[in-house]
Amino acid sequence: MPGSEVRADCWMSEYMTPWDVYLHGLTAVLEHKKTPFQEMYLVETGAYGKALVLDGKWQSSVVDEFLFHEPLVHPAMIQHGAPRRVLVLGGGEGATAREALRWRTVEKVAMVDIDREVVEACRRHLPEMHQNAFDDPRLELVIDDALDVLGRNDEKWDVIISDLSDPIEEGPSFRLFTKEFFEEAQRALHEDGCFAVQAGPVAPGEFQLHVRLVRTLMAVYPHVLSYSSHVPTYGAPWGFILASARPLETRPDPETVDRLLAEKTAGGFRMLDGRTLLGLLQTPLHLRQAIEKETTVYTLAQPPRFFGKGSLGEKSG
Amino acid sequence: MPGSEVRADCWMSEYMTPWDVYLHGLTAVLEHKKTPFQEMYLVETGAYGKALVLDGKWQSSVVDEFLFHEPLVHPAMIQHGAPRRVLVLGGGEGATAREALRWRTVEKVAMVDIDREVVEACRRHLPEMHQNAFDDPRLELVIDDALDVLGRNDEKWDVIISDLSDPIEEGPSFRLFTKEFFEEAQRALHEDGCFAVQAGPVAPGEFQLHVRLVRTLMAVYPHVLSYSSHVPTYGAPWGFILASARPLETRPDPETVDRLLAEKTAGGFRMLDGRTLLGLLQTPLHLRQAIEKETTVYTLAQPPRFFGKGSLGEKSG
Amino acid sequence: MPGSEVRADCWMSEYMTPWDVYLHGLTAVLEHKKTPFQEMYLVETGAYGKALVLDGKWQSSVVDEFLFHEPLVHPAMIQHGAPRRVLVLGGGEGATAREALRWRTVEKVAMVDIDREVVEACRRHLPEMHQNAFDDPRLELVIDDALDVLGRNDEKWDVIISDLSDPIEEGPSFRLFTKEFFEEAQRALHEDGCFAVQAGPVAPGEFQLHVRLVRTLMAVYPHVLSYSSHVPTYGAPWGFILASARPLETRPDPETVDRLLAEKTAGGFRMLDGRTLLGLLQTPLHLRQAIEKETTVYTLAQPPRFFGKGSLGEKSG
Amino acid sequence: MPGSEVRADCWMSEYMTPWDVYLHGLTAVLEHKKTPFQEMYLVETGAYGKALVLDGKWQSSVVDEFLFHEPLVHPAMIQHGAPRRVLVLGGGEGATAREALRWRTVEKVAMVDIDREVVEACRRHLPEMHQNAFDDPRLELVIDDALDVLGRNDEKWDVIISDLSDPIEEGPSFRLFTKEFFEEAQRALHEDGCFAVQAGPVAPGEFQLHVRLVRTLMAVYPHVLSYSSHVPTYGAPWGFILASARPLETRPDPETVDRLLAEKTAGGFRMLDGRTLLGLLQTPLHLRQAIEKETTVYTLAQPPRFFGKGSLGEKSG
């Protein structure tokens, strides 16, 4: 805007599509390193507080992460009703575990992240995010490949939450967005368990990854639901998917949910309650139609090739 | 992202906050002029098609405008149930009128825009948006100041829709976001009428304008509801407000809504149906709490000073 | 800078290196089209006036083009002393021809440009640059490929000026920066003629193209001189090369040059006179050393692969 | 450029004019702090190595700093011929002192910088720049305000070099670009001494600060010379000024200079030798004309108000 006052000297750029760039003005770079798995930035933004960026892609910011982590975790927990054992895949910031641990019914949260250096840097720099979740005796931190962990898993989980970074070709996670992996996850779920997946942007023209992930989960689970939340620092509305062997309640009664949360959790929710949940679960028409038309299912033989947060790879292929 | 391929040479920048810049890659600048009221760009973006930009602020893009215009218009229309007379304030692209005209019950849509040059340029360049709404015999186009038009209005309207550009100090519209103006609108509404307002971003830390507009409307109308929609090219979730003398239905039955739409409209909705509406109306917890705490009401003596799409003016004051 | 006031909404970006971006704030896009040869933008910048951009690379701006065109043309003209016949290759803006026509000794300037649409757009939009050079009866405009024109040329020229756009792989000109082409040019030169070439940036770490062009010309001509000028909108100091069969005067007496210019030209110089010329011809030490060490000669079999204004292609190869 | 590959995620922006932005792609932020005097970034750029940025303005980069520091120091040293005592004002990187210490005739270099934290950070992070100049027993480092130091100075200096950051209003140095300060410097100079000043950009339309500094020095010294050097990371050609009570040699014989440098210095020059010096001293015509026309002299009552590297403050005033 002509006449605007600019406050930043230092910027992180993110490509939301091959044509759209979001420049986040920084006030500090807290840590920057190339780990064996990815390039990590821990920065402080002028508008949204501290943030984690992996391979050039925004993971979460202190000011708006609740709009990501609460919708990622609680719809699955509420569907289950009384989760005791929760498996978190990824989620290095510790915020996904933090939300799971909010439930008093929870006895164990196993958090599996491949990248020790990211987890340690988040633990050091982002106390606002993990809120000491790492010190909760119910948390078991496993530094390993989620695929290997699931492969040798012989426990049953009430809720599994996939909070993995987007499946870019160069990154560590693209195999974890395939039918084979979702089948592994299903084997590790209780029959009344629920699986929640962070599932890419749902902006029009940029939701191909999301829609195909829905179809891929539908090839494994009888009940699948797409929902989304506005996370401003992602520059796009963000998609999630619930999958379960049991029917999913898509029009829960808000007051019943509020009573459940009051009874079973320690509270402290910022965005989520019964009414918010009812809103979240109403997948809008254009997404329902896109899901209906989609036919591609991701497999290890044909995994997603997500390039940046736009799906450049797939679009040009 | 290292290794990303960039596709644009020419960019439009927009400040979402004083620290956050969205760069939209362009493929063409279709028209650019300074009208007596504002600076207008009509551009073609690489990812989101043609777009209108006024005073450096994104108004709408062909690819995602349905995520703005459908939620702006139809919740008010559905609340009323059988709107016959609709007054649109602003909305130069013609897309707001287009949505109102989708209702077969509608006999007249009066569209009041202050800037003839913007309306004409949109009519010329954006047929995908207006879809010949300007040629509908039910449409009356009035080039005038909305304040003056309401001041001398002696008709009663079933639905009034405020689709005015954000109240930046230099722009033409900041007086139209005040208690006095909302009272004028109330006088022009049927007692069972409904008022819908485009009402600024609702990103955390950037929703002050929205929340204060809610309080300002609450000072005039007994029933007020905040809701929002994801519009990717705005770079932030976007807020709307419904206001009415009649109670607003916040948990409509989706099937009933779908029947109403089937009966009363010509169809063609892309995002909105009963289920989407049910989702839209569930204001999330953090916004409800922010509205509850807010006390400021905008008046002509103390109008909003919105600076860019972030509320720089207000924040620094 | 924190607190800076930004004046532009619309920007042209140029990559000076794969890591360095120059954003030029625009006030207008005058014309934009894809010709059969390249993508053309004619824009108006906030700080440097109207400008021509081809394939994303800045060609010239009204405010600082004299810092490019005067050093491109006059050192060769002055070396010759009384040029009558001048051949300009490229130079679609007409400013190179304009400078050549400043010489009263000149009887004919043939200007060969491959792209009629670029020449016509410049003629229409950039009168400040061509200053009616196209109407000078001594100018002959030839729309053709410079390689073909030189191939069938049977005239002898006193001065040949290569003002071709940089040899990017996708562009129309990379074959015109090779030994074979420079030999063609030599055949078309009088034995006392002089050849001047626009020859890429000379920023440290980005001067490989320039240095190799010097070596390529040294493989053809006995006397070769590298010189450079500061052109701010290029974001880098810019190199030129003089080549001749005759020895080049590298320490001309400024007063003698001033007398020559007074006698032989119509005046109107902005940057160039005897003293400026003396300065221009003193190639700095680091460039002389880099030229000495370089061994690569560009040929049709191994042409330059210049990518953007940084030499990304060559560096990564 | 369409199809360009971008290599950076993290950027430093600098406004070269209110309309022109240079984005430097970073590979690391080495240090960032707000000192009592200014905001400091020590960064690593992808193309130009490590760099120092103060108050959002580029000070120097490892790869191209020799194009700034050699022309800043040696023309004055060569004019003097056998400098023994050198006073450096500013120059926190240590590179200006490094160049002065290259002279074997030099017995003492006093370096006065106001900001201990900047000097210490440069000493820590930029050994390529200072090259251990801080350990040379001939160097005396004084952390103080240059104005105070000159005020109580009772020594005479052969060469004084002003390497102060640009006179932005918020910064620590704008009083050091005034007639009063230049008079103080004159009192501290031997009668055959020479004063060298870093003196702002000389891009057309952006050289007002430079031209006025020349006029300001001309109000104090009988002999004044403007010269400039291409420093790519500054995004503009950069000006310097020599001032002396003795006539300045503007057409030195290159071979004589080379013999002087061979005899009196330890060598190691990258850009400067006799021929380069002869080129540097030939102020181009357009700058000579602009200096001639200028009448403003900066005083403490009317100091420069340089805003960013463009002269926004002055232009709009």
The CATH architecture of the largest domain in chain A would be: 3-Layer(aba) Sandwich
Sheet having the most strands of chain A? 7 strands, mixed
Mean pLDDT across all amino acids of chain A: 92
Interface with most residues? A-B, 69 and 69 residues
Q: How would you describe the shape of chain A?
A: globular
* Major β-sheet strand ordering of chain A: 9-8-7-10-11-13-12
- Cα(first) to Cα(last) distance of chain A is 36 Å
CATH superfamily membership of the largest domain in chain A: Vaccinia Virus protein VP39
Work out the number of β strands of chain A. 13
The top-level CATH class of the largest domain in chain A is Alpha Beta
| Tally of DSSP helical segments of chain A | 11
Residue runs with pLDDT of under 50 for 5 or more positions of chain A: 309-317
Question: Notable features of this structure?
Answer:
homotetramer, 317 residues, alpha/beta, Spermidine Synthase, Chain: A, domain 2, Rossmann fold, 7-stranded mixed β-sheet, 5-stranded antiparallel β-sheet, 30% helix
Q: Mind explaining what this structure looks like?
A:
The structure is a homotetramer of 317-residue chains. With 317 residues, chain A is an alpha/beta fold. Chain A has two domains: 10-61, Spermidine synthase, tetramerisation domain (Spermidine Synthase, Chain: A, domain 2, Roll), CATH 2.30.140.10; 66-316, Rossmann fold, CATH 3.40.50. Chain A is 30% helix and 31% strand. Chain A is built from eleven helices and 13 strands. Chain A has helices at 66-80, 95-101, 116-125, 127-130, 146-151, 179-188, 208-218, 254-264, 274-280, 285-293, 312-316; strands at residues 4-6, 10-17, 20-34, 39-45, 49-54, 57-61, 85-90, 108-113, 139-143, 157-163, 189-201, 223-231, 236-244. Chain A has a seven-stranded mixed β-sheet, with helices on both faces. The first copy, chain A, has a five-stranded antiparallel β-sheet with strand order 2-3-4-5-6. In chain A, a hairpin with a 2-residue loop joins strand 5 (49-54) and strand 6. In chain A, helix 1 packs parallel to helix 2 and helix 8 packs across helix 9. The radius of gyration of chain A is 18 Å and the shape is globular. Chains in contact: A-B, A-C, A-D, B-C, B-D, C-D. At the B-C interface, strand 2 and strand 3 of B face strand 2 and strand 3 of C. Strand 3 (20-34) of chain C pairs antiparallel with strand 3 (20-34) of chain D, so a sheet runs across the interface.
